[in-house]
Amino acid sequence: MAFEGLSERLQKVFSSLKGKGKLSDEDIRKVMREVRMALLEADVNFDVVKSFVKTVRERALGAEVMESLTPSQQVIKIVDEELTKLMGQEAVPLNKAPHIPTIIMMVGLQGAGKTTTAGKLANRLKKNDKARPLFIAGDVYRPAAIEQLKTIGQQLDIPVYDEGTDHDPVDIVKNGLAVAAENKNDYVIIDTAGRLEIDEQLMEELQKIKDLAHPNEILFVADSMTGQVAAKVAHGFDEQLDITGVVLTKLDGDTRGGAALSIRSVTGKPIKFIGQGEKLDQLDVFHPDRMANRILG
Ligand code: GDP
Protein backbone atom coordinates (compact mmCIF):
# COMPACT_ATOMS: atom_id res chain seq x y z
CA MET A 1 0.00 0.00 0.00
CA ALA A 2 1.18 3.52 -0.78
CA PHE A 3 2.88 5.41 2.05
CA GLU A 4 2.51 2.45 4.40
CA GLY A 5 5.93 2.79 6.01
CA LEU A 6 5.65 6.55 6.34
CA SER A 7 2.13 6.36 7.78
CA GLU A 8 3.13 3.77 10.33
CA ARG A 9 6.19 5.74 11.40
CA LEU A 10 4.28 8.99 11.78
CA GLN A 11 1.42 7.36 13.64
CA LYS A 12 3.91 5.84 16.05
CA VAL A 13 5.65 9.16 16.58
CA PHE A 14 2.38 10.93 17.32
CA SER A 15 0.99 8.19 19.54
CA SER A 16 4.01 8.75 21.79
CA LEU A 17 2.68 12.28 22.32
CA LYS A 18 -0.91 11.35 23.05
CA GLY A 19 -2.03 11.73 26.62
CA LYS A 20 0.76 14.16 27.39
CA GLY A 21 -0.64 17.30 28.96
CA LYS A 22 2.06 19.82 28.36
CA LEU A 23 4.81 19.39 25.82
CA SER A 24 8.34 20.52 26.58
CA ASP A 25 10.68 21.95 23.97
CA GLU A 26 12.57 18.68 24.22
CA ASP A 27 9.38 16.69 23.45
CA ILE A 28 8.88 18.73 20.29
CA ARG A 29 12.49 18.43 19.23
CA LYS A 30 12.39 14.68 19.72
CA VAL A 31 9.22 14.35 17.67
CA MET A 32 10.67 16.47 14.91
CA ARG A 33 13.81 14.36 14.77
CA GLU A 34 11.61 11.32 14.24
CA VAL A 35 9.44 13.03 11.65
CA ARG A 36 12.64 13.97 9.82
CA MET A 37 13.86 10.36 9.85
CA ALA A 38 10.47 9.08 8.66
CA LEU A 39 10.45 11.50 5.71
CA LEU A 40 14.03 10.69 4.72
CA GLU A 41 13.24 6.99 4.87
CA ALA A 42 10.24 7.61 2.62
CA ASP A 43 12.76 8.98 0.10
CA VAL A 44 11.69 12.62 0.31
CA ASN A 45 14.23 15.08 -1.08
CA PHE A 46 16.73 16.22 1.59
CA ASP A 47 16.19 19.96 1.15
CA VAL A 48 12.44 19.50 1.19
CA VAL A 49 12.68 17.57 4.46
CA LYS A 50 14.95 20.19 5.97
CA SER A 51 12.69 23.11 5.26
CA PHE A 52 9.54 21.16 6.15
CA VAL A 53 10.92 20.14 9.54
CA LYS A 54 12.12 23.69 10.23
CA THR A 55 8.68 25.17 9.50
CA VAL A 56 6.82 22.59 11.58
CA ARG A 57 9.29 22.86 14.45
CA GLU A 58 8.97 26.65 14.59
CA ARG A 59 5.20 26.48 14.55
CA ALA A 60 5.16 23.65 17.11
CA LEU A 61 7.37 25.57 19.51
CA GLY A 62 5.11 28.60 19.17
CA ALA A 63 2.07 29.70 21.09
CA GLU A 64 -0.51 27.72 19.11
CA VAL A 65 0.86 24.50 20.66
CA MET A 66 2.40 25.66 23.90
CA GLU A 67 -0.75 27.43 25.02
CA SER A 68 -3.13 24.81 23.69
CA LEU A 69 -5.13 22.51 25.94
CA THR A 70 -4.49 19.64 23.53
CA PRO A 71 -0.89 20.20 22.45
CA SER A 72 -0.33 16.81 20.83
CA GLN A 73 -3.41 17.17 18.62
CA GLN A 74 -2.20 20.63 17.75
CA VAL A 75 1.15 19.26 16.58
CA ILE A 76 -0.59 16.67 14.41
CA LYS A 77 -2.77 19.42 12.95
CA ILE A 78 0.31 21.46 12.09
CA VAL A 79 1.96 18.48 10.38
CA ASP A 80 -1.26 17.85 8.45
CA GLU A 81 -1.46 21.49 7.33
CA GLU A 82 2.19 21.66 6.34
CA LEU A 83 2.03 18.35 4.43
CA THR A 84 -0.97 19.74 2.55
CA LYS A 85 0.92 22.92 1.77
CA LEU A 86 3.97 20.93 0.67
CA MET A 87 1.86 19.11 -1.90
CA GLY A 88 0.34 22.32 -3.24
CA GLN A 89 -2.55 23.17 -0.86
CA GLU A 90 -5.38 22.87 -3.38
CA ALA A 91 -6.39 20.85 -6.41
CA VAL A 92 -5.43 22.61 -9.64
CA PRO A 93 -7.67 22.04 -12.67
CA LEU A 94 -6.51 21.26 -16.17
CA ASN A 95 -5.72 24.34 -18.29
CA LYS A 96 -8.25 25.02 -20.98
CA ALA A 97 -7.74 26.92 -24.23
CA PRO A 98 -10.02 29.91 -24.87
CA HIS A 99 -10.78 28.42 -28.30
CA ILE A 100 -10.82 24.73 -29.22
CA PRO A 101 -8.76 22.66 -29.27
CA THR A 102 -7.10 22.50 -25.88
CA ILE A 103 -3.74 20.91 -26.60
CA ILE A 104 -2.20 18.61 -24.01
CA MET A 105 1.32 17.28 -24.42
CA MET A 106 2.35 14.26 -22.38
CA VAL A 107 6.05 14.05 -21.51
CA GLY A 108 8.18 11.87 -19.27
CA LEU A 109 10.57 8.97 -19.11
CA GLN A 110 9.83 5.66 -20.78
CA GLY A 111 7.66 3.43 -18.64
CA ALA A 112 6.40 6.26 -16.43
CA GLY A 113 2.87 5.79 -17.77
CA LYS A 114 2.55 8.48 -20.45
CA THR A 115 0.51 6.49 -22.94
CA THR A 116 -1.72 4.95 -20.29
CA THR A 117 -2.27 8.36 -18.71
CA ALA A 118 -3.07 9.91 -22.12
CA GLY A 119 -5.81 7.29 -22.40
CA LYS A 120 -7.08 7.86 -18.87
CA LEU A 121 -7.21 11.60 -19.39
CA ALA A 122 -9.12 11.30 -22.66
CA ASN A 123 -11.51 8.91 -20.97
CA ARG A 124 -12.12 11.41 -18.16
CA LEU A 125 -12.65 14.29 -20.56
CA LYS A 126 -15.03 12.27 -22.68
CA LYS A 127 -17.05 11.09 -19.68
CA ASN A 128 -17.10 14.28 -17.61
CA ASP A 129 -17.02 16.99 -20.27
CA LYS A 130 -18.50 15.11 -23.23
CA ALA A 131 -15.28 16.01 -24.98
CA ARG A 132 -14.26 14.76 -28.45
CA PRO A 133 -10.51 14.31 -28.13
CA LEU A 134 -8.00 13.27 -30.77
CA PHE A 135 -4.80 11.46 -29.89
CA ILE A 136 -1.61 12.13 -31.81
CA ALA A 137 0.91 9.28 -31.74
CA GLY A 138 4.21 11.11 -31.45
CA ASP A 139 6.30 8.32 -29.95
CA VAL A 140 7.83 7.05 -33.19
CA TYR A 141 10.73 5.17 -31.65
CA ARG A 142 8.71 2.32 -30.23
CA PRO A 143 6.20 0.69 -32.60
CA ALA A 144 4.60 -0.84 -29.52
CA ALA A 145 3.78 2.63 -28.22
CA ILE A 146 1.72 3.44 -31.32
CA GLU A 147 -0.05 0.09 -31.12
CA GLN A 148 -0.76 0.68 -27.44
CA LEU A 149 -2.29 4.07 -28.19
CA LYS A 150 -4.38 2.61 -31.01
CA THR A 151 -5.69 -0.12 -28.72
CA ILE A 152 -6.62 2.51 -26.14
CA GLY A 153 -8.27 4.58 -28.89
CA GLN A 154 -10.36 1.57 -29.93
CA GLN A 155 -11.37 0.83 -26.36
CA LEU A 156 -12.51 4.40 -25.80
CA ASP A 157 -13.77 5.05 -29.30
CA ILE A 158 -11.38 7.98 -29.68
CA PRO A 159 -9.52 8.58 -32.96
CA VAL A 160 -5.74 8.28 -33.12
CA TYR A 161 -3.70 10.21 -35.66
CA ASP A 162 -0.52 8.34 -36.55
CA GLU A 163 1.94 8.07 -39.40
CA GLY A 164 3.73 4.97 -38.20
CA THR A 165 7.37 5.14 -37.19
CA ASP A 166 8.98 6.50 -40.36
CA HIS A 167 8.15 10.17 -40.05
CA ASP A 168 9.46 13.06 -38.04
CA PRO A 169 7.32 13.45 -34.90
CA VAL A 170 7.22 17.23 -35.39
CA ASP A 171 5.59 16.74 -38.82
CA ILE A 172 3.22 14.16 -37.38
CA VAL A 173 2.08 16.64 -34.75
CA LYS A 174 1.65 19.34 -37.38
CA ASN A 175 -0.47 17.08 -39.58
CA GLY A 176 -2.40 15.77 -36.58
CA LEU A 177 -3.30 19.30 -35.51
CA ALA A 178 -4.61 20.00 -39.01
CA VAL A 179 -6.84 16.93 -38.77
CA ALA A 180 -8.08 18.08 -35.36
CA ALA A 181 -8.92 21.51 -36.79
CA GLU A 182 -10.81 19.93 -39.65
CA ASN A 183 -12.75 17.59 -37.38
CA LYS A 184 -13.29 20.27 -34.72
CA ASN A 185 -11.86 18.11 -31.94
CA ASP A 186 -12.01 20.04 -28.68
CA TYR A 187 -9.00 18.31 -27.14
CA VAL A 188 -5.79 17.07 -28.68
CA ILE A 189 -3.60 14.80 -26.60
CA ILE A 190 -0.08 14.36 -27.92
CA ASP A 191 1.80 11.28 -26.78
CA THR A 192 5.55 11.83 -27.05
CA ALA A 193 8.61 9.63 -26.86
CA GLY A 194 10.38 8.90 -23.62
CA ARG A 195 13.84 7.64 -22.86
CA LEU A 196 15.34 5.79 -19.94
CA GLU A 197 16.86 9.06 -18.77
CA ILE A 198 16.91 12.72 -19.78
CA ASP A 199 18.69 13.08 -23.08
CA GLU A 200 19.47 16.16 -25.13
CA GLN A 201 18.17 14.88 -28.42
CA LEU A 202 14.81 14.00 -26.91
CA MET A 203 14.58 17.38 -25.22
CA GLU A 204 15.27 19.12 -28.54
CA GLU A 205 12.51 17.12 -30.19
CA LEU A 206 10.06 17.91 -27.39
CA GLN A 207 11.00 21.57 -27.58
CA LYS A 208 10.26 21.58 -31.33
CA ILE A 209 6.88 19.96 -30.73
CA LYS A 210 6.15 22.52 -28.04
CA ASP A 211 7.13 25.44 -30.32
CA LEU A 212 4.90 24.11 -33.05
CA ALA A 213 1.86 23.06 -31.03
CA HIS A 214 1.83 25.75 -28.29
CA PRO A 215 0.25 23.29 -25.84
CA ASN A 216 -2.02 24.66 -23.14
CA GLU A 217 -0.82 21.93 -20.88
CA ILE A 218 2.51 20.09 -20.73
CA LEU A 219 1.98 17.26 -18.29
CA PHE A 220 5.04 15.57 -16.89
CA VAL A 221 4.14 11.97 -16.09
CA ALA A 222 6.10 10.69 -13.10
CA ASP A 223 6.35 7.16 -11.79
CA SER A 224 5.78 7.57 -8.06
CA MET A 225 7.69 4.35 -7.41
CA THR A 226 10.92 6.15 -8.31
CA GLY A 227 10.72 8.41 -5.26
CA GLN A 228 12.75 11.58 -5.18
CA VAL A 229 14.36 10.66 -8.50
CA ALA A 230 10.96 11.49 -10.01
CA ALA A 231 11.27 14.99 -8.58
CA LYS A 232 14.76 15.38 -9.98
CA VAL A 233 13.69 14.24 -13.45
CA ALA A 234 10.62 16.50 -13.28
CA HIS A 235 12.93 19.40 -12.50
CA GLY A 236 15.05 18.53 -15.56
CA PHE A 237 12.01 18.44 -17.85
CA ASP A 238 10.71 21.65 -16.31
CA GLU A 239 13.96 23.51 -16.93
CA GLN A 240 13.83 22.57 -20.60
CA LEU A 241 10.12 22.71 -21.32
CA ASP A 242 8.49 24.77 -18.57
CA ILE A 243 5.95 22.06 -17.75
CA THR A 244 2.50 23.12 -16.54
CA GLY A 245 1.65 20.19 -14.34
CA VAL A 246 2.51 16.72 -13.09
CA VAL A 247 0.68 13.40 -13.11
CA LEU A 248 1.88 10.93 -10.48
CA THR A 249 1.32 7.35 -11.56
CA LYS A 250 1.31 4.00 -9.77
CA LEU A 251 0.02 5.33 -6.48
CA ASP A 252 -1.83 2.02 -6.16
CA GLY A 253 1.55 0.36 -5.60
CA ASP A 254 3.66 0.44 -2.48
CA THR A 255 5.31 3.76 -3.21
CA ARG A 256 7.01 5.27 -0.18
CA GLY A 257 5.99 8.88 -0.65
CA GLY A 258 9.18 10.58 -1.84
CA ALA A 259 7.75 11.61 -5.22
CA ALA A 260 4.41 12.89 -3.93
CA LEU A 261 6.08 14.92 -1.18
CA SER A 262 9.05 16.28 -3.15
CA ILE A 263 7.83 17.05 -6.63
CA ARG A 264 5.76 20.17 -6.01
CA SER A 265 8.42 21.79 -3.91
CA VAL A 266 11.28 20.88 -6.28
CA THR A 267 9.51 22.02 -9.47
CA GLY A 268 7.01 24.58 -8.20
CA LYS A 269 4.50 22.95 -10.57
CA PRO A 270 1.19 21.46 -9.41
CA ILE A 271 0.42 17.76 -9.28
CA LYS A 272 -2.86 17.70 -11.19
CA PHE A 273 -3.77 14.02 -11.33
CA ILE A 274 -2.82 10.70 -9.78
CA GLY A 275 -2.87 7.32 -11.46
CA GLN A 276 -4.15 4.56 -9.20
CA GLY A 277 -4.18 1.47 -11.39
CA GLU A 278 -3.68 0.22 -14.92
CA LYS A 279 -7.32 0.60 -15.98
CA LEU A 280 -8.47 3.57 -18.01
CA ASP A 281 -10.82 4.86 -15.32
CA GLN A 282 -8.14 4.86 -12.62
CA LEU A 283 -7.10 8.50 -12.83
CA ASP A 284 -8.13 10.92 -10.11
CA VAL A 285 -7.81 14.63 -9.45
CA PHE A 286 -5.04 15.23 -6.94
CA HIS A 287 -6.22 16.76 -3.66
CA PRO A 288 -3.28 17.68 -1.41
CA ASP A 289 -5.42 17.72 1.76
CA ARG A 290 -6.81 14.24 1.11
CA MET A 291 -3.32 12.95 0.41
CA ALA A 292 -2.05 14.42 3.68
CA ASN A 293 -4.92 12.73 5.52
CA ARG A 294 -4.09 9.46 3.81
CA ILE A 295 -0.47 9.76 4.93
CA LEU A 296 -1.37 10.63 8.50
CA GLY A 297 -3.95 7.82 8.64
P1 GDP B 1 5.06 5.12 -21.16
O1 GDP B 1 6.27 4.41 -21.65
O2 GDP B 1 5.42 6.31 -20.32
O3 GDP B 1 4.08 5.47 -22.23
O4 GDP B 1 4.34 4.14 -20.13
P2 GDP B 1 3.05 3.20 -20.29
O5 GDP B 1 1.81 4.02 -20.40
O6 GDP B 1 3.31 2.21 -21.37
O7 GDP B 1 3.01 2.49 -18.87
C1 GDP B 1 4.04 1.64 -18.42
C2 GDP B 1 3.44 0.58 -17.51
O8 GDP B 1 2.94 1.18 -16.33
C3 GDP B 1 2.26 -0.14 -18.13
O9 GDP B 1 2.35 -1.51 -17.79
C4 GDP B 1 1.05 0.50 -17.48
O10 GDP B 1 -0.06 -0.37 -17.41
C5 GDP B 1 1.60 0.81 -16.10
N1 GDP B 1 0.90 1.93 -15.44
C6 GDP B 1 0.69 3.19 -15.88
N2 GDP B 1 0.03 3.91 -14.96
C7 GDP B 1 -0.20 3.10 -13.90
C8 GDP B 1 -0.82 3.27 -12.61
O11 GDP B 1 -1.32 4.34 -12.21
N3 GDP B 1 -0.84 2.16 -11.79
C9 GDP B 1 -0.30 0.97 -12.17
N4 GDP B 1 -0.35 -0.04 -11.32
N5 GDP B 1 0.31 0.79 -13.35
C10 GDP B 1 0.36 1.83 -14.21
TrEMBL record:
Q: Where is the Signal recognition particle SRP54 helical bundle domain?
A: 2-87
**Reactions accelerated catalytically:** GTP + H2O = GDP + phosphate + H(+)
Write down the EC number: 3.6.5.4
Keywords noted in UniProt? Cytoplasm, GTP-binding, Hydrolase, Nucleotide-binding, Ribonucleoprotein, RNA-binding, Signal recognition particle
User: Key word Cytoplasm present in the record?
Assistant: yes
One example of the protein's molecular function in GO is: GTPase activity
Q: Which residues form the SRP54-type proteins GTP-binding domain?
A: 101-297
Entry keyword RNA-binding: yes
UniProt-annotated binding residues for GTP: 108-115, 191-195, 249-252
Q: One biological process GO term for this chain?
A: SRP-dependent cotranslational protein targeting to membrane
* UniProt-annotated location(s): Cytoplasm
| Domain called AAA+ ATPase: residue spans | 100-278
List cellular component terms (GO): signal recognition particle
Q: What does this protein do?
A: Involved in targeting and insertion of nascent membrane proteins into the cytoplasmic membrane. Binds to the hydrophobic signal sequence of the ribosome-nascent chain (RNC) as it emerges from the ribosomes. The SRP-RNC complex is then targeted to the cytoplasmic membrane where it interacts with the SRP receptor FtsY.
Entry note about domains: Composed of three domains: the N-terminal N domain, which is responsible for interactions with the ribosome, the central G domain, which binds GTP, and the C-terminal M domain, which binds the RNA and the signal sequence of the RNC.
Q: Which family does it belong to?
A: Belongs to the GTP-binding SRP family. SRP54 subfamily.
On assembly, the entry states: Part of the signal recognition particle protein translocation system, which is composed of SRP and FtsY.
- What's the protein name? Signal recognition particle protein
The gene name reads ffh
